[in-house]
Amino acid sequence: MLTIKQNLLETINGGNPDRFVKQYEFMDLIMEVPLGVEFNYGQTWKDHWGITWQWPEGQLGMFPVHHDGLAVIKDITKWKDVVKKPLIETSDEMWAPAIAHANAIDRNEKFVSAFYAPGIFEMTHHLMGMENALMALYEEPEAMQELIDYLTEYELDFAAVLIDKLHPEALLHHDDWGSQISSFVSPDMFEEFFLPAYKKIYQFYKDNGVQLIVHHSDSYAANLVPFMIEMGIDIWQGVMNTNDIPELLKEYGGKISFMGGLHSGLVDYPGWTKEVVKKQVEETCRANGYKYFIPCQTSGLPIENFEGCNAYIDECIDEMSKEVFK
């Protein structure tokens, strides 16, 4: 029987896995990194960039807010006056929990995995609001390019510290690039503004020992897959079934792998049922196979919103492995 790590590599390299990869099982995510990301349920707070966040009680997640003058950037042409890079923590004390976690991982069994969020596109609209960020790409492209370059520099500076402290083998990087039915920007605009930034970021990780780039975007982004390949993404995590996943596998399998297919809103909901989850897993595994594909909830971490859902998804994937890998 292959190890979890070996089975993942056989899957994404088009080899001979002996079972389906179960969601995030191959990544041991080090969430203790002093990244500055906070998760404060039921609260309103400002982060280290000055972005105001809210996580209302009863909601499944948090989001930045920009009403009543709360946006950090109110005029993109004056972004340099208000956007300042946060201090990157380098002390041994602050990194100690993350280092201890990394050192405890069996690197023969799982990938020591770093986590980074939010990404470049998300940062632009976190700072000024989605509508203003999208309009600025059209109206003030030079200022937006300067801001993107500045955010990229910060990511690279943080990556250098992270790599030095943890020596990760994989990276899970968040940046949502679309809605369920469309990318937020056209492929041409994505190529102009965001592809160069990500080529720099992901090449830096690859040049410094990271074997596996896993990019989370729980969205439609089939029109951006060629750019994902060009920037060095190994696995697109979060691929929704609003993308034609079998067609993507046919066209791009061998250049990139796809992780998702289980729309979280259709399986992980109040009162979720085993019958619905089992049906979704069976249909997803049968439709997409096991070469270059990993059945997984589209959510961007190995978490669940409603108790027991993820464990049962894994059970169903195990059952499909018994059926397919006879």
Explain how this protein is built:
The protein is built from 12 helices and 10 strands. 41% of the residues are buried. The two termini are 13 Å apart. Helix content is 42%, strand content 14%. With 326 residues, the protein is an alpha/beta fold. It has helices spanning 4-12, 92-104, 120-128, 130-139, 141-166, 187-193, 195-207, 225-231, 245-252, 264-267, 274-288, 309-324, and strands spanning 27-29, 44-46, 52-54, 63-64, 111-116, 170-174, 212-219, 235-239, 257-262, 293-297. It is globular, with a radius of gyration of 20 Å. The chain has a single domain, classed as TIM Barrel, CATH 3.20.20.210. It comes from Acetobacterium woodii (strain ATCC 29683 / DSM 1030 / JCM 2381 / KCTC 1655 / WB1). It holds the Pfam family URO-D. One of its GO terms (molecular function) is uroporphyrinogen decarboxylase activity.
Low-confidence stretches: none
The CATH architecture category equals: Alpha-Beta Barrel
Structural class: alpha/beta
Percent strand: 5-15%
Keywords:
326 residues; 14% strand; seven-stranded parallel β-sheet; three-stranded antiparallel β-sheet; 12 helices; globular; TIM Barrel; Methanogen_methyltrans; alpha/beta
How do the helices and strands line up, and which of them pair or pack?
Blueprint: H1 4-12, E1 27-29, E2 44-46, E3 52-54, E4 63-64, H2 92-104, E5 111-116, H3 120-128, H4 130-139, H5 141-166, E6 170-174, H6 187-193, H7 195-207, E7 212-219, H8 225-231, E8 235-239, H9 245-252, E9 257-262, H10 264-267, H11 274-288, E10 293-297, H12 309-324
Parallel strand pairs: 1-5, 5-6, 6-7, 7-8, 8-9, 9-10
Antiparallel strand pairs: 2-3, 3-4
Helix pairs in contact: 3-4, 3-5, 4-5, 5-7, 7-8, 11-12
Protein name: Methyltransferase 1 MttB2
Keywords: Methyltransferase, Transferase
Enzyme class: transferase
